[in-house]
Amino acid sequence: MNVLRNHLPTADLQRLDAAHHMHPFSDGDELNAKGARVITSAKGVMLTDSDGAEMLDGMAGLWCCNMGHGRREMADAAHAQMLQLSYYNTFFQTSHPPVIALSEKLAELAPEGMNHVFYASGGSEANDTNIRLVRHYWAAKGKPGKKVIIARKNGYHGSTMGGASLGGMSAMHAQGGLPIPDIAHIDQPYWWGEGGDMTPEEFGLARARQLEEKIAELGEDRIAAFIAEPVQGAGGVIVPPETYWPEIQRICDAHEILLIVDEVITGFGRTGTMFASEGMGIRPDIITVAKGLSSGYAPIGGSILSDEVAETINAGGDFNHGYTYSGHPVSCAVALENLRLMVEEKVVETVAADTGPYLAEQWGTLADHPLVGQVEIKGMMAGLVMTPDKASRAAFSTPAGYVGLKCREHCFAGGLVMRHVGDRMIISPPLVITRSEIDLLITRARAALDATLVDVQKRGLMAK
Ligand SMILES: *Cc1c(COP(=O)(O)O)cnc(C)c1O
Q: Sorted alphabetically, which keywords does the UniProt record give (predicted)?
């Protein structure tokens, strides 16, 4: 079998990786000079690298391994499906049992009135679908002028041309001539960094009202949709003020625009409800899903559509769009097994009632660390911001990310994968993490913050 159980020594792996493998979101020369960390196996919440070092996976891979690593049931589901029907398409008036079963299951789990799914291979593709879908929707309703999608700065919606355009990452827009036309951005609800003298509540309202101002500025007859993540993930786990989403929902209701809620991270229990939309009182027309849908065991994403949107698209003639792997049978079988395990093992209930509140309590203890300005958490996704001066919410005098990278390196050395976004540290562990594993995560996070504080003090970066 072509499974690499034994492997070359780390230095050889790194040399070959540097020679032939182009990494996403990486500075190639810098990475190749240093050598990538090679992960060779994983079980539950623990990763093992090519030197045999163990690390707690505080990011669930890339926000996706919600059911933890190495579950036999998932492998068995893929194996059985490959033998039964390894591939067939869903383009030309055909279908297959796994895609039918998964669609029925998603309709059951999704919020009321959302009973239709269009599939993609991941979140970026699904958001590209959403762009085409909402424009086609308005055209089918006789309003082809409604094309503009309003999105947010520092939002993340993927890395394809469409996904990156919807996203508001300036570093991504700076390369390759993005955004594509007819995408507009409003500011994010990031109170710590941008709230100034306003209270979080005032700031949440002000940032939400930018949506209404943007609609007025561009003209409602040109707007197709607004897209946002319930809690920004890649932007740094930014939990919006309580006032934000109710105001966004009011504005979407008052205007003739669709609401696309990107739940690629927040879907399937991450925030303590099956979808964050339910827990946060959001009523989407379209939900983007991926990541936790299969816990990363197979690539799959999709758009869950409201009945009204689906019926309009269905009545609008051919929708000239699809991917070879839309509704891939193996991915669907794996996703179905993932959802079965989640439901049977009451993972969402446990996050809501037990491990989520416990993580919140423990993560909260980091707030008294001298480096930490603010901690934020929603279910099983959490962030903290490091600052030289808590009172003034100041940023470090070093370039954004300098201190964050130091902290991340200390985390890795101490056996914890925690990611940094600028000088924010973020976690999004597997949803199956236990209380004792949470204790280990917090102990290692605190040790990394202590080591970072020593660095920062040595460089004289703290406020006097
Ligand atoms: C990861 C992510 C995407 C992109 O998904 P891919 O599977 O990487 O294409 C889109 N939206 C959000 C909110 C994400 O976190």
A: Aminotransferase, Pyridoxal phosphate, Transferase
The dihedral built from the CA positions of residue 243, 246, 252 and 253, taken in this order, carries a sign that is negative
Ligand 1 neighbourhood includes 234 CB (under 6 angstroms) = yes
The domain in which residue 51 lies consists of: 37-70+346-458
Q: In the predicted model, what is the mean pLDDT of residues 187-215?
A: 98
Nearest atom within ligand 1 for CA of residue 233: 15
Together in a domain, 77 and 225: yes
User: Is the CB of residue 195 below 6 angstroms from any atom belonging to ligand 1?
Assistant: no
- Kindly state if the Cβ of 156 falls inside 6 Å of ligand 1: yes
What pTM value is reported for the model?
0.98
> 169 and 182 in contact (C-beta within 8 Å)?
no
Rounded to whole angstroms, what are the CA distances from 37 to 139, 389, 425, 441?
Answer: 49, 34, 20, 20
Q: Is 222 part of a structural domain of the chain?
A: yes
334 and 255 together in one domain = yes
Query: How far apart, in whole angstroms, are the C-alpha atoms of residue 63 and residue 57?
Result: 10
- Tell me the residue ranges of DSSP E strands in 26-101: 39-43, 46-49, 54-57
- Identify the DSSP state of 354: I
- Verify that 223 and 276 share a domain, yes or no: yes
The H or E element that residue 358 is part of is: helix 356-364
> Is residue 414 located within the same domain as residue 453?
yes
The answer to whether the CB of 266 falls within 8 A of the CB of 230 is yes
**Alpha-carbon distance 417 to 39, whole Å?**
12
Name the domain count of the chain. Answer: 2
* pLDDT (0 to 100) of residue 464: 74
Per-residue pLDDT, 6: 75
pLDDT at residue 4, rounded to an integer: 65
**Do 42 and 151 have their domain in common?**
no
Beta pairing partners, 48: 41, 54
Report the distance separating Cα 241 and Cα 226, nearest Å: 19
